Every structure is written in C-alpha cells, then in structure tokens.
Amino acid sequence: MKKYAIGFNKNVEENFDNNVREIACQAANEPKKSIVEVYFPHRGMGWTYYNDSFDLKVGDWVYVDGKLDGYRGQVKEVNYSFKIKLSDYKRVIAVINTNVEGDFYFAGSHIVSFDKNAIPFSKVLAWFKAPENDAEYVSGDGEDKGFSIDDLSGMKITHNIADRGYDYFMENKVVYVELDENTGHAIVEGRENYEIEFNYINGEISNLKCSCYCSGACKHEFAAMLQLQESLDFITQNYSDKFNDYFAAITKGMFVNTLMNKKISGKISLGV
Question: What is 145-179 written as a DSSP string?
Fold first, then answer.
C-alpha cells in the first residue's frame, strides 16, 4: 500500500440539519396540491400520499411520514384531480436533491468525482437518510493517538470485528466516502445507514466516529477505512493529476439508481 503524504490544514464542519434546506427542494410560493404514488424499492411496495408542499414530478425521490417514514421512495405518478378525506392520507415531507453536474470517473466498484460541488456529503447524506429535524446528537473527541491508513492494526479492534468489517467492504456496503482536505466522511449500509467521520492528516487517521450504537471501534469504521485505502490507492495510480485535496466516491449502483432512473434526457460525462 502506498503512502499518502498529503498535507491538509483546513477544518470543515458539516451540519446535516442545516443542509436539510439544501437537499429538500421545496417549491416557492404555493405548490399545486397533488396525490402521488410512491414506490419504495427497499420494501418492494408502493403507496399513495397527499402532497401540498412540493412541485413533484415523476422520478423524484422523496421521504414520507407514516409507516414508511425513513424509507426512500420514488414518485411514479402525480394526480392533480382528486377529492380525498385528508385524515386518510399521509404526506410527502421532503424531496431529495438529485441534481448533479460534473465529471465522474470509474474507480473500481465506485464512481469518483474531484469536484466539491458534484456529490458532496451534505447533499448525498439525504440520498441515504431522511431529515431528522427533532434529533439531537452529541459527540466527543477522543484522546487516542490515531493510526496510519496504511496500517489498520492501529485501530486495535478484535479479529471478529475486523472480519465483519472486511465482509462489509467486500459487499460494497461502504456506499460513499469523501475526503475534503483534512476531514473525511463515509456512509455504510447496515441495519440502517450509518455516518462515519474522521480527520486525515499526512496519512494519519484520528477522531474516527460512527453513528451506530457501538461505543468503540466498529465494523462500519473498519469497512470505511478499507474503502478509503482502496480509493486512495486507485486514485493515486490512475488519477493523480486530478486529485488535489478532494475526492468523493459513490458505489456504481447507488449512482445509477439515484440519478439515472430520474433522467429522461441530458448528458453524462465520465472519465475514460
């Protein structure tokens, strides 16, 4: 594994609650009321919802309230001619911003971009997790000395956790990883989608945290570090001329399912 002596010195803070306004495309003034049919791929089912907050179109990805709260669904039909008993219907509560522009490159199991505005963590997080307006989070910075990205034994995890993390990595459950100067983020699929954050300075990882219930180093963190290793190695070998202090990588499947299913026209530019 190669060394990644890249000097980063700027702290970047991400605040998901503040970014809800950025990723929820609420129409200005008063959107036209509608009844929309929404299909939820992870549940293999569709349902009908009332909408009076967004200018919805077929193909939009949304979140709703009710029993399917937290699941991402895609609008399949929009009906403006209706009369309903309002108490019989749940509502659409957020629309995911999937408007993406930029150049993207193949990077193994992932698609990578070196443009900070293409697929930033603040936007992509909403592709995986519904807004949590009432949620309260706290975190603390540990006193550990960190470890090298080239030697993950420094994480000091058990063989069992390492094996499970390796399985997550091999199954492409690290669906997103971003390195922005000295700050990194990842999203790992599990029982739910977990957020990983860390600091990266001259190849050293510190302040590694996961949003799962584990109090110490976990399989999600180990999987994220394996993906970071692979992504950095791939980029160094193939795209060193494009990589300065930023990259973001997302799995090919998520890239296609989120962006391409909505597109009926337009252009996509991918690196060779």
Answer: --EETT-GGGG---HHHHHHHHHHHHTT-EEEEEE
- The radius of gyration of the chain's CA atoms, rounded to the nearest angstrom, is 20
How far apart CA 33 and CA 82 sit, in angstroms, is: 9
Residue finishing a domain among 43, 61, 95: 95
The answer on 220 and 192 residing in a single domain is: yes
Is 87:252 a contact under the CB 8 Å cutoff?
A: no
Whole-angstrom distance, CA of residue 124 vs CA of residue 99: 11
Tell me, yes or no, whether 5 lies in a domain. no
Q: What predicted TM-score, i.e. pTM, was given to this entire model? A: 0.80
Largest CA distance in the chain: 64
106 and 225 both lie in a single domain? yes
Q: Name the token pair of 60.
A: 């939009």
Crossing angle (nearest 10°) for helices 121-128 and 16-23: 80
Same domain assignment for residues 33 and 76: yes
Q: Encode pLDDT of 201-256 as tens digits.
A: 999 999 999 999 887 789 999 999 999 999 999 999 999 999 999 999 999 999 98
Tokens coding 67: 């029993």
SS3 label, residue 29: coil
For residue 93, what are its two tokens? 């509560």
Amino acid identity for residue 60 in this structure: D
